[in-house]
Automatic annotation (TrEMBL):
<protein>
    <recommendedName>
        <fullName>histidine kinase</fullName>
        <ecNumber>2.7.13.3</ecNumber>
    </recommendedName>
</protein>
<keyword id="KW-0067">ATP-binding</keyword>
<keyword id="KW-0808">Transferase</keyword>
<keyword id="KW-0418">Kinase</keyword>
<feature type="domain" description="Histidine kinase">
    <location>
        <begin position="262"/>
        <end position="470"/>
    </location>
</feature>
<dbReference type="InterPro" id="IPR036890">
    <property type="entry name" value="HATPase_C_sf"/>
</dbReference>
<dbReference type="InterPro" id="IPR036097">
    <property type="entry name" value="HisK_dim/P_sf"/>
</dbReference>
<dbReference type="InterPro" id="IPR003661">
    <property type="entry name" value="HisK_dim/P_dom"/>
</dbReference>
<dbReference type="GO" id="GO:0005524">
    <property type="term" value="F:ATP binding"/>
</dbReference>
<keyword id="KW-0597">Phosphoprotein</keyword>
<dbReference type="InterPro" id="IPR005467">
    <property type="entry name" value="His_kinase_dom"/>
</dbReference>
<dbReference type="Pfam" id="PF02518">
    <property type="entry name" value="HATPase_c"/>
</dbReference>
<keyword id="KW-0902">Two-component regulatory system</keyword>
<keyword id="KW-0547">Nucleotide-binding</keyword>
<dbReference type="InterPro" id="IPR004358">
    <property type="entry name" value="Sig_transdc_His_kin-like_C"/>
</dbReference>
<dbReference type="InterPro" id="IPR003594">
    <property type="entry name" value="HATPase_dom"/>
</dbReference>
<dbReference type="Pfam" id="PF00512">
    <property type="entry name" value="HisKA"/>
</dbReference>
Amino acid sequence: MLFLTVFSSVLISVVSLIHFRYEAKEYHEERLSRKENAIKEHIDYILLNTDQFVTAKTISVLFKDRIHELSDIHSLEINFYDLKGRLLISSKTALKKGKRLPKLSKKILKKLETSNEKRIVETNEEANGTVVKTSYTYIKDANLKNIAILNIPYVENSDFYDEEVRNFLSRYAQVYFAMLVFSILLSYFLSKNITKSLTQISQKLALTKLNQRNEKLALQPGNHEINSLILSYNLMVDKLEESAQKLAQSEREHAWREMAKQVAHEIKNPLTPMKLTVQNFQRKFNPTDPQNVQKLNDYSETLIQQIDTMTAVASAFSNFASMPLQQNELVDVVKIIKMALEIFNEEYILFNSNETVIFGNYDKSQLIRITTNLVKNAIQAIPEEQEEKLVVVQLIKSNNSIILSVQDNGVGIENEQKEVIFEPKFTTKSSGMGLGLAIIKNIVENYNGTITVSTERGKGSTFSIELPLN
């Protein structure tokens, strides 16, 4: 709308200027023609009322005293030339003595002679920009015979039209400005009304998530196009909710299938040596062997060891499947972390805190579990053959939260492993069930905290946990 307003206004201005120029041109041509006809009528009257025989030579005598009168009456310069283009008489100030008289060019004489109307008008623009129209026409005697050429120079004075153009543009600019302001306001309110529903849909789309119930939009009365878009959005919300339910169910089923596979795998590992031990004992059992008691003890210890392994597997998966409820109490976090580090004998484990005492409402056992698990992973990430080993445990109190970080200078983590490191059963070690970091993440999320990892291959990793101070 603004473009059309500006474009139409510019177009109207250009057309108006062209029209004024054309009108001014027409006005001057008509004015010159009227003046010329009036002067010719005046000349014809003088020629008809003279007693002399009218020839080119008598023109100078007849109009010697009257040419200035004619010039003053019609406010134009008047010149008479003979048929060969020589100046006979002029209303201009007398030419200086000895100065060569002006003469018409052969080109003008030829054009005048061959013109149908026996009249031509030449237009010239002077150096100062003034436009001069010069008319040439024949003067005839009573027998309609050409006896001389009448020349009338006419200077176009466009001051009046220039003033008219300025006044028009001034008035038009005022109207145009008012129209432009009106167009801006109208465009703003129209576009705001049109885009209001689109903005609502855009905002809803930005808030649309798969794991939550999304609100639908109400239809707009009288706006069929927007309502079509709203109906499509509401249909998408229904399908998204249906897809989310199917996806959640599929993920649960997949998670439990994977968990069942892992449990079966971990339980199957100790069952194999147990079966071999029983078969070996059954095959080699001799009632008369005096070492039966020792062999029975060895057999029992092997079975007990494997049963303990199976118990540990079951306990680990049980802890992951159903975390115990948090027993929060006011504890000194610095003291708890130091207590958790006392079980490690490695001298390269360092601990520092920006506060000597940090109190918060946390589950003491869960804080110990987080610390020991992260430190144990950090120790295992450093190769045994590495000479310089370092594990730095740092506790920082920042505003309304605490940040616990465990840094090692081990081998680091591969980029593709960073995305799955907190998933259950993921592990980079040859032993273990890969539930340690998954359990830690579960504990941290229960506290509405976050856990992140930064790593560089060959230089080590840093696990950072941020927990709000409750």
